[in-house]
Amino acid sequence: MAFLFIDVDGYCAGGVDQRRVVSPGADGYRARELGWAYYTTDGHASGGVYFRDENVPPLASGRKGYDPCVSYTHRLHGLPVDPGAHDFAGEVVMCASRLLEAIRAVHDAVAHVTGSEVVFVHKGGHEGLWAGQAVPGAAAIDLGAHGCPRVDDIGRANPGLHVGLQCEFHAPVKRRARKVVHCPRLEVSLLAAWVAGAADEKGAGA
């Protein structure tokens, strides 16, 4: 069995249903990054997919040209609000409307490489919903229902797991070196580390 941890970063204009992925015909959640990491008894791998807006409704307008909710998320996560063609140079980039397609592609690739059943793992948010839409019938585990703390707390308790490991798109180098930045690639690693630690504690107490 392969456990596929996923985390999505992005934003949604105020008043728009965040569970709905943006499409050419309707506004919705605009993904900017999908971080993933899979783990099996034989090994693991990780990566990410980035997103920009193409052929979808224009950004919501508001103060400084953006919906206040959009501005807040930009400030919190550090990803470009409206990335251009070169903002994610060297990375896999898709239109935000193809988030479910990206999740399905990662799932299928992991299933092919490992030859195993793939179980999605996430914490809160709408990743479980999107995983079910992308791969109908796929199993998903929400770590939030199993006592998993906030990723900030996991990172602070284990500095070696996060210091300097956040991707370059989320924050300046100095901030990445000392803070737990909300980077999907980092968050899936922190969640996996928590699961491993919880399993070790359970095994020790058995």
Describe the structure.
- With 206 residues, the protein is of the alpha/beta class.
- It has helices spanning 68-77, 99-114, 127-134, 151-157, 173-176, 184-205, and strands at residues 2-11, 30-40, 43-52, 93-95, 118-122, 140-142.
- A six-stranded mixed sheet has the order 4-3-2-1-5-6, with helices on both faces.
- The longest helix has 22 residues, at 184-205.
- 39% of the residues are buried.
- The mean pLDDT is 83.
Give the amount of beta strand, in percent.
Answer: 15-25%
Terminal CA distance: 23 Å
Major β-sheet, in short? 6 strands, mixed
Class by alpha and beta content? alpha/beta
Strand neighbour order, sheet with most strands: 4-3-2-1-5-6
Spans of at least 5 consecutive residues with low confidence: none
Number of strands: 6
How would you describe the shape?
globular
Individual helix count: 6
Q: Give the SSE string.
A: EEEHEHEHEHHH
Helix content: 25-40%
Mean pLDDT across the residues is: 83
Radius of gyration: 17 Å
